[in-house]
Amino acid sequence: MFHDWSCLEIAAHVRSGDVSAREVVAHHLERIADHSDLNAFITVADAEQALRDADAVDLAAPLAGVPFAPKDLLDTAGLRTTYGSSIYRDHVPQRTASSITALTDAGAVIVGKANLHEFAWGITSRNPHYGAVVNPRRPDRIPGGSSGGSAAAVAAGLAAISLGTDTGGSIRIPSFACGTAGYKPSYGLVPLDGCYPLVPRMDHIGPMARTMAECALAMEVLAGIRATPRLGGLRVGLLHEIDGVARLTDLGANVEEAALPDSEALLPMFAAWCADSHYEQYRARRDEYSPDLQVKFDWGFSVTAADFLHLLGEYDRWRERCEQALPHDVLVNPTVPIDLPLRDDVEDADLRLRATRYTRPMNFLGWPSATTRDGTMFTGRDDATVLGAALAWEDALYP
Asked: pLDDT at position 1, please?
């Protein structure tokens, strides 16, 4: 049925007149209602408005009629945007994030706002205000975070595409957890306006869908990036053993072992940056943050000025080491190098550290990074190269 179609298939059928955008959107709205137990959404779009939007779709648009569920960290004019918090429970923005507008202008139709970890700081999407997101493919495990609702909605066929945000792995970890695809563009490529900040110098907005081909289509719409599937001739640095590693060589890549300089020492700096984003609000309304967030923000506020300035110097030196140690076209590793945590596992600092071992550093660097459907992560310096490598990998896995 419609929910089994990719973005490309939906748009093709709508363009050909085989089905109307209204029919596709109505079907997905029904599925959202039928699967409310997943808590994938904080706010579902008004059905009449969504159907009017579907009727107004340009049939020639690249995403014509594609049901779209942006993360509820991104502003939507006239549609409630909570940032996953109780503080903004009744917040309705006046403007829409330009990243969302780019996809709706290309024919996508918003069907709701996807659930997330409160204020986008966490890997479980266990939201105390709007319910814990359930992993539709592995219900006993976490759906990942912070964009857990986005991945769950896509995996369950409640929406064909989402926009997530990623400050330390928040697009890639949920994609790994739910068996979908996600792409974190290079820093600044997709504008951050209308996104509630966690660490502005590390925040990224990117697409989440069931396949990398759909993410690539979204990146063409968002930033004009056109990628051709390719691993042949690329110098690939293997950061951690992956399933099917021989396939890289079979696809023509020149594979060699690589080592990512450790960034654990920079974590207090990250926490301080998070605290800075919430500086006035947290001091005035701390009790309205969940205990989970209170622990994290209290840590950030505890970092001294002297320690922070020292860490800034360490940050610069770490980036230089990365440039020297990682001259490869593409780096490859499992997105999450540990067993996916159980649904009720406590998310403490140690779990976050182990789960984000490879995702977080790529935000410190600002490099583009993709997670494919099988959980393999590709990272590099150039968006087209990274997307092309991820596309080639998925094409080989799912011909």
From this structure: 83
Are 208 and 151 in contact by the 8 Å Cβ rule? The answer is yes
Which of 71, 113, 184, 296 is catalytic? The answer is 71
Stretch(es) of the chain classified as CATH 3.90.1300.10: 2-223, 235-397
Alpha-carbon gap, residue 112 to 119, rounded angstroms: 18
Please classify residue 188 by burial: count the beta carbons closer than 10 Å to its beta carbon, then call 0-12 exposed, 13-18 middle and 19+ buried: exposed
Count of CB atoms within 10 A of residue 139's CB? Answer: 11
Q: Cβ(341)–Cβ(138) under 8 Å?
A: no
CA distance 357 to 340: 13
Considering the candidates 98, 99, 150, 170, report the single residue annotated as catalytic: 170
Q: Which tokens in the block code for residue 1?
A: 């049925």
- Tell me 81's DSSP state: -
Based on the residue annotation, tell me whether 170 is a catalytic residue of this protein. Answer: yes
pLDDT, one tens digit per residue, over 212-266 is 999 999 999 999 999 999 999 999 999 999 999 999 999 999 999 999 999 999 9
Report whether pLDDT(399) > 90: no
Decide yes or no: CATH 3.90.1300.10 for domain 2-223: yes
The reply to whether CATH 3.40.50.300 applies to domain 235-397 is no
Catalytically annotated residue among 98, 146, 147, 186: 146
Active site residue 146: yes
Query: Using 50, 70 and 90 to split pLDDT, how confident is the model at 206?
Result: very high
* Mean pLDDT for the chain overall: 98
In which order are the strands placed within the sheet that holds 369-371? 109-110, 67-68, 161-166, 204-209, 181-184, 369-371, 376-380, 330-334, 235-238, 254-257
In this prediction, residues 34-63 reach a mean pLDDT of 98
Residue 350 buriedness (CB in 10 A; 0-12 / 13-18 / 19+): exposed
Q: pLDDT at residue 188 above 90?
A: yes
